[in-house]
Amino acid sequence: MAKSSARPRTTYRCSECGWETGKWVGRCGECQAWGSVAEAGAAQGRTSAGPVTSPAVPIGQVATEDSRATTSGVPELDRVLGGGLVPGAAVLLAGEPGVGKSTLLLEVAAKTARGGARTLYVTGEESASQVRMRADRTGGVHDELFLAAETDLGAVLSHIDQVKPALLVVDSVQTIGASDVDGVPGGVTQVKEVAAALIRVAKTRNIATVLVGHVTKDGSIAGPRVLEHLVDVVLHFEGERSSRLRMVRAVKNRFGPVDEVGCFDLSADGIVAVTDPAGLFVARHHEPVPGTCVAVTLEGRRPILAEVQALVTPSAAERPRRTTSGVDGARVAMTVAVLSQRARIRLHNHDVFLSTVGGAKIAEPAGDLAAAIAIASAWKDKEIPTDVVAIGELGLAGELRRVRDLPQRLAEAARLGFRSAIVPNDSGRAGGSVREVQGMQVVAVPDIDSALRVLDLSKTDATPLIRPNESSPQRPRLGLVQEPGGRSV
Length: 489
Prior knowledge:
Protein name: DNA repair protein RadA
Pfam families: AAA_25 (PF13481), ChlI (PF13541), Zn_ribbon_LapB (PF18073)
Family: Belongs to the RecA family. RadA subfamily.
Keywords: ATP-binding, DNA damage, DNA repair, DNA-binding, Hydrolase, Metal-binding, Nucleotide-binding, Stress response, Zinc, Zinc-finger
CATH superfamily of the largest domain: P-loop containing nucleotide triphosphate hydrolases
Oligomer: single chain
């Protein structure tokens, strides 16, 4: 008996990541995207050769004049972008609602227009009169800045044909819809089509394009993940609602580094670039206070001083509290355990509260030493000199490990008037070796117990290398240096 021909097997593929499965599911098992799994089309035949848009040439003969970055008019944004906006580049700027994305891009559009480059600002979230009111308040009105309120992709493309801009700002890509594509604006299919069409126009006409993107509850960019692959630069706009400080961080950048951070001051009068944000994260004490220590962290490649404050109080609870703000709670718990085991500072019956000043967030391990010194100072109720910084990663064995870019951190601390620093010592010698670096007294120690002895915070008897001196000057008053014409904070 002849065998019956087998029915072709139906497969389903995720439009986001390409994951395949034998049955339909509502959520992709690979990238966890909802509604992206659909039946895969039938296999097509081989694609035949077709016409080329331009012949292939040796790479040395490719012209680069049209792809040189031009300034956006905002130095801090240029720092993150790697020099400025590149013609034909697509930039995706994402951030939480109300963080200041529209204000920043209106400032960029206005300054680009003042530089002689025609700019088109397309808003799909606000009316034209609302944007004009903000421009009046921030001084962003210019004849070369064109404004359009549209939510249809075809209308946006018509505006581009008429205005012929050098810079295009679309606020936001989730509000623009294509009439010939199924789905509602903001959906996966619509966002992909709208973004692809705008990027295609940007590449063919050499228009620098900035797209505003929404974020989800967990802070990731809303919409299909392929959107991040289509664009050239992905920027995250961050900031606490209780603080005026805003930061732009590069997540992806084809034209520059991805470890740069730009700082801004957002107020009712607009947004101003902050070129020196060091003073925002260090409190100004008139006299030394127990439980405080200054760390030097890196935001991108920029060293920033951040003060860590600790409070240690006796606890009547069976499980003492470990409360943190601005620092990683897991690292603080590890630091408390290391202090208890390696430095004989018993905190098993004490509540420990640790916080940073000014809303700073210390995410890198270089702040471990400052946190440990602050906790030890609060536990012993003994102040440390106000002109001392601590830099180093703390290991579980109590050892101190070196961190990257230590000379740059020391130079920044010396520039702001700090005279002493405690850093890890790679030689492993006991005690502390003292040397002069960047005009500072730098004490290199191998472990946490040696670091505490330097400041007379250890339980062992030893002569401290750094003593509080009443005649020494207090911590310098730190201010902000902003771009010309900006206001001080």
